[in-house]
């Protein structure tokens, strides 16, 4: 039986696929690593639907990993202590679906057990449960070596660039704006130039790049990450569980759950992880940050002020 820290077994092989596999294999592996506790309850069809690949691709990956099929891979997983460690979090009593249904029965106009007349209670309660789990996973991620390494870099780098290209553009601006309170040299990457010269042509020494990206992934994100890494700039990608290309070209990949049973992927928990990251940068900078914050507050009071 392996401990959660052992880099052996199924987890190690999935991590290897993130670097060596095809794009489809990387996407499946990335999802499985972030949802390994749910694997015993999945089928090839359900996995294919969630990841938007074919069932054949799921079976092919199982064989690549050394199993005859997905069923055999699930049986092998039962022997890994990692599953028990993760399940201990996921099985907390306050995440029980029946309790959630009872709590929201009145709001939904339902009767006994929280099921509305002629309707279903499962969908809204499932969304809430998934978001609660996402918050927990964010806090677990905030204790990881990758997260701490990224925070330390963002606290000490000469220049920090933050980029987001689609619906993530607002998140990139939000992160850059908050980091700028804590330290100088923070820039939200402009998208209108088309050349990113401020990142790629300036001195890369002491620079750092953060890219925020959710599927369907922009070509710009992949291209910029590749170019920056080739130039010697450390790259952190904050993304969803499905991104298979990031591990090959990023120094850290911070994965956030985005599937909450809504009509499309939601990015709210990415803002939550960004808050945790900004807070950690604050802690890395230390007491000396007070002088900067006081100066910013005084400057704001002089130019704008607050309503009282």
Topology:
Blueprint: H1 9-20, H2 23-34, H3 44-51, H4 55-64, H5 70-77, H6 81-90, H7 97-103, H8 122-141, H9 145-156, E1 159-164, H10 169-182, E2 186-188, H11 197-200, E3 207-213, H12 219-230, E4 235-239, H13 246-249, E5 252-255, H14 268-285, H15 289-303
Parallel strand pairs: 1-2, 1-3, 3-4, 4-5
Helix pairs in contact: 1-2, 3-4, 8-14, 9-14, 10-14
Overall description:
The protein contains 15 helices and five strands. Strands 2-1-3-4-5 form a five-stranded parallel β-sheet, with helices on both faces. Helix content is 54%, strand content 8%. The protein is α/β, with parallel strands linked by helices. The radius of gyration is 22 Å and the shape is globular. Strand 1 (159-164), helix 10 (169-182) and strand 2 form a beta-alpha-beta unit. The chain has helices at 9-20, 23-34, 44-51, 55-64, 70-77, 81-90, 97-103, 122-141, 145-156, 169-182, 197-200, 219-230, 246-249, 268-285, 289-303, and strands at residues 159-164, 186-188, 207-213, 235-239, 252-255.
Nutshell version of this structure?
The protein is of the alpha/beta class. Helices cover 54% and strands 8% of the residues.
């Amino acid at each position: 039986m392996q401990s959660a820290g052992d880099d052996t077994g199924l987890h190690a092989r999935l991590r290897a696929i993130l670097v060596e596999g095809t794009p489809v294999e990387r996407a499946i592996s990335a999802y499985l690593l972030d949802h390994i506790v749910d694997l015993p309850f999945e089928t090839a069809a359900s996995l294919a639907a969630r990841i938007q690949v074919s069932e054949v691709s799921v079976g092919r990956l199982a064989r690549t990993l050394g199993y005859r099929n997905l069923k055999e891979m699930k049986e092998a997983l039962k022997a890994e202590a990692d599953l028990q460690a993760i399940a201990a979090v996921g099985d907390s009593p306050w995440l029980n679906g029946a309790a959630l249904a009872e709590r929201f029965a009145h709001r939904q106009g339902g009767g006994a057990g929280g099921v509305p007349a002629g309707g279903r209670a499962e969908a809204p309660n499932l969304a809430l449960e998934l978001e609660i789990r996402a918050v927990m996973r964010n806090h677990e991620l905030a204790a990881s070596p990758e997260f701490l390494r990224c925070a330390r870099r963002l606290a000490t780098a000469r220049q920090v660039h933050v980029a987001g290209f689609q619906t993530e553009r607002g998140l990139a601006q939000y992160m850059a704006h908050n980091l700028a309170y804590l330290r100088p040299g923070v820039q939200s990457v402009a998208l209108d130039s088309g050349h990113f010269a401020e990142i790629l042509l300036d001195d890369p020494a002491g620079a750092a790049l953060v890219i925020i990206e959710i599927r369907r992934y922009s070509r710009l994100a992949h291209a910029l990450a590749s170019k920056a890494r080739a130039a010697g700039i450390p790259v952190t990608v904050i993304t969803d569980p499905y991104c298979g290309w990031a591990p090959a070209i990023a120094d850290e990949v911070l994965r956030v759950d985005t599937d909450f049973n809504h009509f499309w992927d939601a990015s709210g928990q990415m803002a939550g992880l960004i808050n945790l990251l900004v807070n950690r940068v604050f802690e890395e900078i230390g007491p000396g940050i007070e002088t900067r914050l006081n100066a910013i507050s005084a400057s704001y009071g002089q130019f704008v002020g607050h309503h009282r």
